[in-house]
Structures are given as structure tokens and as C-alpha cells.
Amino acid sequence: MILGVVADDFTGATDAASMLVRNGMRTVQVIGVPQGPAPDADAVVVALKSRTVPAADAVRASLAALDWLRAGGARQFYFKYCSTFDSTPAGNIGPVADALMQRLGTDFTIACPAFPENGRSVFRGHLFVGDELLSESGMRTHPLTPMTDSNLVRVLQAQTPSKVGLVRYDVVAQGAEAIRARFDALRAEGARIAIVDATSDTDLLAIGAACDGMPLITAGSGVALGLPRNYRARGWLRQQGDAARLDPVGGGAAVLSGSCSVATNGQVARWLAGGRPGLRLDPRKLAAGRDLAAAALEWARARLAEGQAPLVYATAEHDEVSAVQRELGAARAGELVERCLARVAQGLVEAGVRRLVVAGGETSGAVVQALGVAQLRIGPTIAPGVPWTQAEGRPLWLALKSGNFGGPDFFADAFAMSGEAGAAAASSTARGAGR
Questions:
Q1: Domain match, 83 and 198 both
Q2: Do 140 and 278 share a domain, yes or no?
Q3: Residue pLDDT, tens place only, 26-51
Q4: How far apart are CA 21 and CA 187, in angstroms?
Q5: 3 state DSSP class of 143
Q6: Are 373 and 427 within one domain?
Q7: Pick the residue with more confidence: 6 or 428?
Q8: How many domains in the chain?
Q9: Per the domain annotation, does 247 fall within a domain?
């Protein structure tokens, strides 16, 4: 193992893993802190469900993941969080970064959630989502981690006693050597964490080069773009032409959506507008004790028998989500939906679904755990930050989508790609058998 990644949610883990696979690293994602030896891979991503838990619990889980990755021989470590820097003044990015630095015995790291390909850029320390400041984007009303400040230096400084500095765009534009010189200057000023501007892939490559040899990197998935080049220069990594190959699967397809992000609302609306089948879950009925999972499965099995891909969703607009949370409480509403969708996922797989798209980080975590998936192989990219994955040792493909990622036709695009990728994999297997 070359790189060990600690990710704070399941979709974020596949996001980071996808970036590494796209750049030729054989990458495996494990679910939770595993026991036993590490898998044979260039990079291993430990997917935690720690983004919104109490900070002390997030620190505890992250340190356990770090210790396991160190025991597996990882030479560099990466704490991966969301490209919208999802957190609160209580954490969890600052506390986890501090704890990982202390455990590794290092006094300096970076913080850079930029992912320009997906519209996330950092300029003068401020995070933009597309053309909007973070604080003016849909993230300002996130039900768990509302982001009302775009100044990342200020956001992170509220979470950590470590001094937070800034590496500005004009330094980044000068390349890796200038970035490293700025790191040294910040260290001399007592800073332990540096927010780093990035508005393009060229910036990410320069930042990656500047982080060569840095024990710990904290970032969204974007900075991972520049790391494989470092490993090849050191002779640690050779190009893997088949790093994204998955085994072909047959069977049915389905979508489960618990995310209420702007992007996912648009994707659900587009799916339904195309005349495709969808069934909405009502959290109020779940709270009243209605067995909506059983009803949803009965409905979905009928759609599958007709050769259709059913969508079961709790996705709703912000005003409706807020009303439900006022009635039920945010934590209870979320837990009811996650538990229901996890049961639906189990039933769908039992009914023969072999390609399952799941929208939302918390929902993805609940579904993967309910299905008993311990390890994922990372496959081809559907959209920036979202790959198809395969449950290790099982004929089951999963696309775990962050709520904010993907275009309006993401669900349909995913299934179109799964058919093409499966056919290509089957053809490749057949050619290999012929030899």
C-alpha cells in the first residue's frame, strides 16, 4: 500500500477512490475500520460514517482507521472530507485533522476541499460552489451541516486551536516550489494548517507536487489528482491500465434516494419527468409506524418484473424537509428514512437487483451496512466524483452518490454506463479466455 485514506462518509470515500483509479492506482474501499490484513492495492480508502457524529466519536474512529492503515504499510495518509467542507464550529474537520497530525508526529498539513471539475474552487480562502459563494449556495440550508460562511480560514479556525494560514492563488500559480516556500513561511509564523487556493486542475497538480513527502494531507478528492505522479517519480507505482475493471453483472437495476440536496432533487424530478417509475416515502408515515418498506418492496418488485428500474425516494425540497424536521426532529427524521431505505435495499437485492444507485452520504452508509458489504472495488467513473463500484466477491454493482454530485440525468447515465461497462468487461474476459 502506498496511500491510506480516511474518509468521513461513504460517498466521499468512493469520490476519493474514483480519483485515484482514474489516475492508475489500484484502489480498494473498505467499509468501517476492518480487522485483519489490508487488501492488495496501491491505495486503500477506509469509509467511515463520521461526518456528523459527535467530534470525539469522529476522532476515535479516524484514529482507529489511521492505525490500521499504518499497520498495512501505507507511506502517506489522506483525510478526505466533502468538497463543500461540511462541518460545524464544533467539528469535525478540525478535531480529526489535529488528532491525525498528533498521531503521525507531524506539525503541518494542508486543507483544500477544491474540486474544480465539479464546480468547487477556493479563491483567496473562500470556497465557491459554481459561481456562488458557499454561503449563498444550497449548502446554506443543509439540514445537518449548514454552511453559512465561505471563508475557510475562519470556518476551520473555529474548530481547532491550531493556527490556520492561507496559501493564496498567486503563490499556487507559481508552482510547487513556491507553494513549499509558503508552507515554510507559515510554519515559521506558527501555523499548523494551511488553506490552499485552487481553481483548476493545474493548481491541484502543483499542490499535489508540493505535498510530496508530507505525512498527512487533508482535502476533498481533488488534491489526490496530483499524488500518483509523485509515487511514480519515487518508483513506487506503475501505471495500471485495468485499474477500473469490474466483473460483469446481470439482473435488475434500481435507485434509492435519501438526499435532499438541490442536485438530487433535480435528478429525481428528471427521472420522473421521463415517465420512469418512482415511489416517495413520507417520513411522517414512518414515524406513525407504517411499514413503508414492505409496501415499497411490493411496488418495486412489480416494476422489476416489467423490466423497469424503480426509484424509491425520500428526496424533497428544503421547505418540506424543514417542516418534517420541526415535527419529528432532524436526527429522528433522518434515521427513519435511512432505516427504511436500508430495508428496501436488502429486499431489492434479494429480488435480483444487481445494479443499485444510492443518492446521499448518510443513506449510502446505511444501505452498504445493511447489505453487509465490507469491501468495494472501484470501477469506471459515471460523473466526476462518482464511480461504479463492486461489492468484493459478489455480483453487485453500487453507485454511491454524494447528494450534490452528478448532472440532471445521472440515474439514467449510470445505468447506460453499467450496460456498456459490463459488456466491455465480458468481452475482455472472453478475449482473455481465448488466449
A1: yes
A2: no
A3: 899 999 998 889 999 999 999 998 99
A4: 33
A5: coil
A6: yes
A7: 6
A8: 2
A9: no
CATH number at residue 147: 3.40.50.10840
The alpha-helical segments, DSSP class H, found in 189-261 are 201-210, 227-233
324 and 226 in one domain?
no
Residues 190 and 259 in one domain: no
Assigned C-alpha cell, 93: 474537520
Separation of alpha carbons 302 and 429, rounded Å: 33
> Domain check: are 121 and 10 in the same one?
yes
407 has a pLDDT exceeding 50: yes
Domain membership of residue 238 (yes or no) is no
pLDDT tens digits, one per residue of 87-126 = 999 999 999 999 999 999 999 999 999 999 989 999 999 9
CA angle 330, 113, 270 (to 5 degrees): 60
d(CA 238, CA 389): 22
Q: What is the pLDDT of residue 250?
A: 87
% of the chain with per-residue pLDDT over 70:
95
Q: Supply the range of the domain harboring residue 188.
A: 3-233
Question: What is d(CA 275, CA 292) in angstroms, rounded to the nearest whole number?
Answer: 23
Which of 225, 258, 212, 248 has its CA nearest to residue 18?
225
Task: Write out pLDDT tens, residues 139-174.
Answer: 888 878 899 999 999 999 999 999 999 999 999 999
* Domain assignment present for 356: yes
**pLDDT at position 427:** 37
Rounded Cα distance, 262 and 317, in Å:
8
Contact predicate 52/190, CB 8 Å: no
* Distance separating alpha carbons of residues 252 and 351, to the nearest angstrom: 8
Per the listing, cell 509515487 goes with 231
* 188 and 53 together in one domain: yes
Contact 83, 220 (CB under 8 A): yes
pLDDT of the residue at 34:
87
Structure-derived torsion over alpha carbons of residues 233, 236, 240, 246, reported in degrees to the nearest 10: -140
Residue 91 domain-assigned (yes or no):
yes
Residues 272 and 225 in one domain: no
Distance CA 215, CA 407 (A): 35
pLDDT value at residue 421: 44
What is d(CA 253, CA 388) in angstroms, rounded to the nearest whole number?
Answer: 13
| Separation between Cα atoms, residue 104 and residue 214, nearest integer Å | 11
Tell me the Ramachandran region of residue 318: left when phi exceeds 0, alpha when psi lies from -120 to 50, beta otherwise: alpha
Instruction: Specify the pLDDT at position 430.
Output: 34
